[in-house]
Amino acid sequence: MANHGSIVQKSPIGFDSAKVKQITDILNPDLATLFELFELWEKHQWYVRGSEYKELHSCFDAWAEHSLQHADAVAERIVTVGGIPLDPTTFPQASVFQFEPAGVPAVREMLQSQLNALNQLFTKLRSDIPQLDQIGDPASAILLRNILLEHEKFAKKISLYLEKAGIVYELTQGQP
Predict the structure, then answer these.
(1) Helix (H) and strand (E) counts in the chain
(2) pLDDT tens digits for 64-114?
(3) Residue 17: what are its φ and ψ, rounded to 5°?
(4) Which residue segments constitute the domains of the chain, with CATH numbers given?
(5) From 14, 46, 128, 147, which residue has the greatest number of CB atoms within 10 Å?
């Protein structure tokens, strides 16, 4: 059995083994985080209740689908550069955010949990993009830029729901 996170083959696109390892080490936590985000939104769309049910259920379902598609794109990119994507059983440990405790959260807690997870993803992606550019992998950087841009739109919508509900939230740690 192959060692996950290592090099699977000679890079089909010409990266040396050191670059493949660097790129794989950067992208694997992004893969894990996007998949965990997919699971978070799936959980929330199953449990959402209240007057905003229909709209939130639809949003959560669509956002889950986008996160899953992005996770797949990151995994495919890892393979393309010559690496091995993480095994899905390791996603909870490799993700940049910790999944919320078991149970059925209130809608406001769902939204805050989603926003917190997204902001942790944003921090990671904003760190990864210049690293990938510096390594010489602009294609992976572009992929992450597109993921960042789309997920920032989700965060904006979540923040609007939180404002609508009169909830005070923090977009970044320590700043209201």
Answers:
(1) 5, 0
(2) 999 999 999 999 999 999 999 999 999 999 999 999 888 999 998 999 999
(3) -60, -35
(4) 17-85+96-164 (1.20.1260.10)
(5) 147
